[in-house]
Specification:
By secondary structure, this protein is of the alpha+beta class. It is 39% helix and 22% strand. It has seven helices and eleven strands. The strands form three sheets. Strands 3, 4, 5, 6, 9, 10 and 11 form a seven-stranded mixed sheet that branches. It is globular and about 50 Å long. Mean pLDDT is 93; it is low at 213-217.
Length: 250
Amino acid sequence: MLEQCLSSIRNVCMAQAPQDIKFEIIIVQDGKSDAIAQRLKELCTRYHCMLLQANRSVGYTYAVNMGLRKAAGDLLVLLNDDICFEQKEWLDYIIKAFQLHPQVGIMGCRLIYPDRRIQHGGMTYIGGLQLLAHKYWGCQENEPGAQKVVRTVAVTGAMLAIKREVYNQIGPLNENFVIMCSDTDYCLTAHKKGWFVLYNGRAYAIHRESQTRILIPKQSKLNKIELNDKVLFYRKWSSELKQMHMQGII
């Protein structure tokens, strides 16, 4: 799936980008595997990427932070390896939205499954749980509400665009969240700092959600880590999310 992701970046995003836009692609290998490392080196050579390798399995958040610390661009885009682009206007929609709304510091887009159902259409508040969940999940890709450009408080980290000024102010993602919730935590932190978080439903990408993790052993251990992440997130943000909901922010 990583090769499909890289191919779509080159053939869709980069092919349609203005000549003055420079791309820097950084791949982070989470965990030590000589066979995987060799394959990643081959892909990096073919697609002109930088490869960073962790000596052990360090989790999603630490791996993302490795990449962010090396990135030099004005716009930092986090991408899962199971993301694939087909919309030629994707980059144009993202860049123009940042230019049109200077107060926006973080932006996400509509993500759809290969069967054309929506995986992520923004975030919605679940009052009983005092948590956030994917809006329009399971709806058809052309759901009108999911195609809007709206201010929100969080978007998914599967495709998360961060303005350089935000990263310089806030710093890396919170590594207390090992696998889950660090993306939402980052968005909410930026929101508290006065930045706008934007869901851009005009732009979309294909997301084969969690397909890579089917190949990961010791799933029960991962489930325990994920549960700990969720508990930590609930303790940190549930009261504030409830207040935001009562104030009509979410």
